[in-house]
From TrEMBL:
Its cofactor is Mg(2+). NCBIfam families: Glp_gephyrin. Pathway: Cofactor biosynthesis; molybdopterin biosynthesis. This is Molybdopterin molybdenumtransferase. It comes from Bradyrhizobium cajani.
Length: 403
């Protein structure tokens, strides 16, 4: 049977994946969330002309000549404007962030003056507008400075605060529930019995999902029985998961029960088995509103499929505009053989040569159980189905893994 191409599988996973509902969150909670609406400034910044320096607010015409003498008539500090007007031959002491008083049109920095009581002698000619930030030079009330679908950076948060927004409208985070399966799994730190394996897949998947902004729920490890697997799936639904991720039990063995349990629960299956290595037995479908991604159990397969399918799905539900991983051009660091019908995602180390060329070195052993090689890799080198043998130095495409 022909396996489904990776691009079709990804399109199927993303079909109908609209941003989740909007919620208001405090600025501190909005970091890396996706804006649900355009946000306009609620105020003008600065609200009035303000001094950029510590010095004296003057009329430029009065202080255009070296050794002009002016009379000090008052002081303005940040937050405490001067009520009067600067008249001919007058100066007002001003500090950075102070509102430029009426009448003044320049600031002379204090290093360019000599003060003697109320007599201020100018030592550097004033220029109109100098050291003054005009009202609204940053932004004006009503300016739309943050757009819907923006993933908020720390600078955006500062801007939103400056625009006087204590809270922002963002899309709800997708909730990802992760269910492991397998009688052989024991938790890290336990003493594995004969033939037992230490549970590892979930650690990478939880961290990956969280780093993409999802909330995660751990549904634990289901034993290899239909009852236990079904109970795990139901816990995911009860938790209100937007996405249920299962790991293991996806293949054709007698103990691979995930698909059977999902079918018994009424899944609308979109696909099972894709033309990809690692990750061939991956499955996908919908259980009501909950999207299900059934990952293979091999640790590398579960991670690579999580990276390629779960991450874009989380991004789409989160509302972001950058959903897809970006492929980068690189050159092969060593020869690779011809590929078969499965699109290959080879674990590779990356080096940047002195001339800026990115070079990808596929690790020697690509078996999908090898966690050490996965951890040592910085990228996945993508080999198209039936790609011919390629030699070191040939162009290739890589997907960078999260640092
Ligand atoms: N006759 C066939 N056999 C297999 C096929 C096939 O097409 N025909 N596909 C192979 C491929 S490709 C993969 S990938 C695996 C995936 O199988 P399962 O999804 O059923 O995975 P399991 O059998 O449950 O586990 C595989 C392996 O991974 C270990 N594992 C499982 N879960 C975890 C976990 N949470 N943490 C750490 N390690 C885990 C498990 O102990 C097994 O060693 O099937 C091939 N077989
Ligand atoms: O697809 Mo499996 O993931 O090759 O080992």
């Amino acid at each position: 049977m022909a396996l489904m191409p990776v691009s079709d599988a990804l399109a199927s996973v993303l079909a109908g994946a609209e941003p989740l509902a909007e919620e208001m969150v405090a600025l501190d909670d909005a970091f890396h969330r996706v804006l649900a609406r355009d946000v306009a400034a609620r105020r003008t910044q600065p609200p009035a002309a303000m001094s950029a320096m510590d010095g004296y607010a003057v009329r430029a015409g009065d202080a255009a000549k070296i050794d002009s003498e002016l009379t000090l008539i008052g002081e303005v500090a940040a937050g405490r404007p001067f009520a009067g007007t600067v008249g001919a031959g007058e100066a007002v002491r001003i500090f950075t962030g102070g509102v430029v008083p009426d009448g003044a049109d320049a600031v002379v920095i204090q290093e360019d003056t000599v003060a003697d009581g109320k007599r201020i002698t100018i030592k550097e000619a004033a220029i109109a507008g100098r050291h003054i930030r005009p009202a609204g030079v940053d932004f004006s009330e009503g300016d739309v400075l943050l757009r819907a679908r923006t993933r908020l950076t720390e600078r955006d948060l500062a801007l939103a605060a400056g625009m006087n927004h204590p809270r922002l409208p963002v899309h709800r985070r997708p909730m990802v529930a992760i269910l492991a399966t397998g009688d052989e799994l024991v938790m890290p730190g336990a003493t594995p019995g004969p033939g037992q394996i230490v549970y590892s897949n979930g650690y990478a998947l939880h961290a990956l999902a969280r780093s993409e902004g999802a909330e995660t729920v751990d549904l634990g490890i289901a034993a290899d029985t239909l009852e236990a697997t079904t109970a795990g799936i139901r816990r995911g639904r009860e938790a209100g998961a937007d996405i249920l991720v299962t790991t293991g039990g996806a293949s054709v063995g007698d103990h691979d029960l995930v698909q059977q349990a999902l079918k018994a629960e009424g899944i609308a299956m979109a696909f099972w088995k894709i033309a990809m290595r690692p990750g061939k037995p991956m499955m996908h479908g919908r259980l009501g509103a909950m999207r299900v991604i059934g990952l293979p159990g091999n640790p590398v397969s579960s991670y690579v499929c999580g990276f390629l399918f779960l991450v874009p799905l989380i991004r789409a539900l989160s509302g972001g505009s950058m959903i897809h991983h970006r492929r980068e051009r690189a050159v092969l660091g060593r020869d690779v053989g011809a590929n078969d019908q499965r699109e290959d995602y080879l674990r590779a180390r990356l080096e940047t040569r002195d001339d800026g060329t990115l070079t990808a070195f596929p690790v020697n052993h690509q078996d999908s159980s090898l966690l050490a090689n996965l951890a040592a890799a910085q990228a996945l080198l993508v080999r198209a189905p039936f790609a011919p043998r390629a030699e070191a130095g040939a162009l290739c495409e890589v997907l960078r893994l999260p640092a």
